Amino acid sequence: MIAGITLEAVALVRGGRTLFEGLNARVGSGRALTVTGPNGAGKTSLLRAIAGLVRLASGRIAFEGSADPAEARRFHSHLVGHQDGLKSARTANDELLFQARWCGATRQAALAAAERLGLAPHLALDVRRLSAGQKRRLALARLLAAPRALWLLDEALAPLDAGGRALMGEIMAEHVAAGGLIIAAAHDPLPIAADTLDLGR
Amino acid sequence: MSGLGVLLRRELSLTWGAGGGPLLSVGFLIAATVLFPLSLGSAAQILGAVAAGLVWVLLALASLLSLERLFARDFEDGALDIIALGPLPLEASCAVKCLAAWLTNGAPLALASPLAAVALGEPVGAVPLIVLTAALGSLAFVFVGGIGAALSLVSRGGALLQTLIVLPLLIPPVIFGAAAVFAWTHGLAWTPGLALLAAYALAAIGLGPIAMAGACRNALG
Fold first, then answer.
1. Which of B2, B4, B10 is most worth mutating to test chain A (most A CB atoms within 10 A of its CB)?
2. What angle do CA B132, B138, B144 make, to 5 degrees?
3. A131, B30, B82, B143: which has the highest count of C-beta atoms within 10 A?
4. Least confident of A23-32, B8-17, B99-108, B141-150
5. Looking at the partner chain, which of B6, B73, B78 has a beta carbon nearest the beta carbon of A102?
6. Burial of B191 from C-beta contacts in 10 A (0-12 / 13-18 / 19+)
7. What's the rounded Cα separation, in Å, for the pair B185 and B164?
């Protein structure tokens, strides 16, 4: 489990440029945090650093409730980025089952997640036949299929239509109400109540 | 355990289904085998003398054909993020990807290469040794070639870089494998070549995934 995340004096450097330094923030259980800022402010890099993909230039990211940060990242967090990681030549069903089961979900849980996200009628199609919004729903299905405490969402709602955003708002509200944590990079306000961390200056 | 199976199934379906699968590399091997007698002449003493060497060169080049896509597609569409954050250490995931590439490309090549060798004039008795050495050799090619595939992720002109990095590392297995088959054909001691080839393949399997995972992390971070 992850009970909270603390960023202590975090600094990120990308390609020789300092994106930000001395960043402090804390997200507790049952809270959502929106990371805002202009393009290139480092929102994606910050989320990837929390996920462990990008190395910090200095500072520290601490996971409360888990002794081993690597385990917290590997088994208790989801990162949904602006790339869906889907193979266009495979069917939606194959890709759904791979992403969900790779995260430890059962087949039933994956299909139930697809059902809730309105993907059930499209599962037999090749991924290349899906719209951008449908692909994103497919990528988001693993959040529901494999319950994990921390959701890192990088512009994850951008391609969704109004109905999709409302649905994700509902799903995110349930996740937070159940004690989950959400850190989302977004330009538009999240569909749920959230604290804000502004990287722009 | 389940993570291993889930990833292996996906990789097999991708490498088997997409881009022609084993047909591309096996087709290349066969096409080149057909062309050699046309360019070198069909005199048995010429072709027979170089058959083992020719097949090994073809095996190395055919293995390279399929390697470019090992990590590049997953890197471009974001699937490598998901794999890197999954339940397996990235080293194990890289090894699974290589294993899948070998099962769908290397193993069919190993089965096809005695066909090519015998067609070029190798004695039929050499078939078991050719299959064995080709299987070991193609394993080494995949696990060494994967390092180049991972290293070239972040560079433009990755394919050229990959060839330059990988080619020197392909030389030892070509020498050992071709030498073992040549020695068997001429009644010389063939086990040293086989043993060296097996050792090289084992080292590649053991060390390759560590280097691939490091290169992938570097590309993702």
1. B10
2. 135
3. B143
4. B8-17
5. B6
6. exposed
7. 32
Q: How large is the average pLDDT for residues A49-67?
A: 90
Cα B32 to its chain centre, rounded Å, is: 17
Smallest Cα–Cα separation from A144: which of A120, A163, A172? Answer: A172
Instruction: For residues A39 and B9, give the distance between their C-alpha atoms in angstroms, rounded to a whole number.
Output: 38
Q: Answer whether B86 touches A (CB < 8 Å).
A: yes
Give the pLDDT mean for A67-96.
90
How is residue A70 written in tokens?
A: 């690597």
pLDDT tens string A133-170: 999 999 999 999 999 999 999 999 999 999 999 999 99
> How does the average pLDDT of chain A come out, rounded?
92
pLDDT band at B18 (very low <50, low <70, confident <90, very high): low
Helix axes A92-102, A107-116, angle to 10 degrees: 120
Could you report the predicted ipTM of this complex, rounded to two decimals?
0.92
Distance CA A57, CA B153 (A): 23
Contact criterion met (CB below 8 Å) for A158 and A127: no
pLDDT digits (tens, 9 = 90+) for B145-193: 999 889 888 876 767 777 788 889 999 999 999 999 999 998 999 999 9
**Closest chain A C-alpha to B135 CA, distance in angstroms:** 29
Nearest by CB: A102 against B3, B18, B73 = B3
Q: Which two tokens stand for residue B65?
A: 């054909």
Question: CB neighbours of B32 closer than 8 A, spacing ≥ 6?
Answer: B58
Backbone angles phi, psi at B45, to 5 degrees: -70, -30
Q: pLDDT band at B199, cuts 50/70/90?
A: very high
Contact criterion met (CB < 8 Å) for B77 and A101: no
Cβ B87–A51 below 8 Å, yes or no? no
Helix spans in B44-190 (H): 44-67, 69-77, 79-84, 90-101, 107-119, 127-151, 158-185
> Given an 8 Å threshold on Cβ–Cβ distance, is A98 in contact with B6?
yes
pLDDT at residue B42 is higher than 90? no
Smallest CA–CA distance, residue B88 to chain A, in Å, is: 8
